[in-house]
Write a structure and sequence with these properties.
There is one protein chain. The protein is globular and about 35 Å long. It is an alpha+beta fold.
């Protein structure tokens, strides 16, 4: 499992983690699309914004390996702002390649891009 050095470990002041320390001995947690409903807590929304900012800063528009990125946090963005970069895609692999869909990210998180939708 690739460890993304320099990537923030969590959202400051919360328990929302962005990376995991070690591989799950029971097997890799697969990525799944989680629905983001309008009534989500403000802290959940802040975590999404901080995570997409960290992804953009760290990887930009280039494909990246899932590695030690938290499956739960990635799943909130998966299949919308973060999409598979390979075909076939294995959602239960630490080696899976992902890429940020900049248009979708810009539409969902305009403040990250300077407020321009």
């Amino acid at each position: 499992m690739l460890k993304h050095r320099g990537f923030p470990g969590r959202l400051a002041g919360t328990d929302y983690q962005f990376v995991i320390r070690r591989a799950n001995p029971k097997g890799v947690t697969p990525l799944t699309r989680r629905e983001r409903f309008r009534d989500r807590k403000p802290a959940d929304r802040r975590a999404d914004v901080a995570f997409i900012e960290a992804l953009l800063e760290h990887f930009g528009d280039q494909p990246f390996e899932r590695g030690n990125l938290d499956a739960g946090r990635l799943s909130w963005l998966f299949d919308r702002e973060v999409i598979p970069a390979e075909d076939p895609f294995d959602p239960a692999s630490y080696d899976a390649l992902l890429v940020i869909d900049l248009d979708a990210a810009r539409a969902s998180f305009p403040d990250v891009f300077g407020g321009v939708a």
